[in-house]
Write a structure and sequence with these properties.
Elements: H1 2-21, H2 23-27, E1 43-52, E2 55-64, H3 69-86, E3 91-98, H4 105-108, E4 114-119, E5 133-137
Length: 138
């Protein structure tokens, strides 16, 4: 009887500790710090500058560690804003890829696994977009 009561008290105490401390710290899955409002740290893979139909486009590929989609979109928006401050263009295209994603240019074509942001600072210069920016999460 005392043995069964001891096992019940011990299991109840360990369950209470798990609920109190949170499952992340109890199981050792306390991952990295939460990202800031502006997104995650990233590494530039490639920056392409091109001219199409008399317009200047800048496309930038960056990679981040594994993260949820919203944080990647925040990162892409931050990078697009920084590009707009640094260089003048009609369209900015920022693609945020996973660090384990493709590194060759041909493999990056098509839909990205991560996030994409198209930023158009002057609405009158580009006729295909109806909003100043578009954020895609894939």
């Amino acid at each position: 009887m005392f043995l069964i009561a001891g096992v019940l008290v011990l299991s109840g105490a360990s369950g209470a500790y798990a609920v109190y401390s949170g499952k992340e710290s109890f199981l050792g899955m306390a991952g990295p710090e939460k990202p800031s409002v502006s997104g995650l740290a990233c590494t530039t893979i490639e920056t392409l500058k091109m001219r199409r139909n008399g317009q200047r486009w800048i496309r930038k590929y960056v990679s981040t560690d594994s993260a949820i989609g919203v944080d990647r979109v925040r990162t892409a928006l931050r990078i697009a804003g920084l590009l707009a401050k640094e260089e003048r263009a009609d369209l900015y295209h920022v693609v945020v890829l996973d660090a384990a994603g493709p590194s060759d240019r041909a493999a990056r074509r098509g839909a990205a696994i991560g996030a994409e942001v198209l930023l158009r600072p002057e609405p009158a210069k580009l006729s295909g977009m109806s909003t100043p920016f578009v954020a895609l999460l894939q």
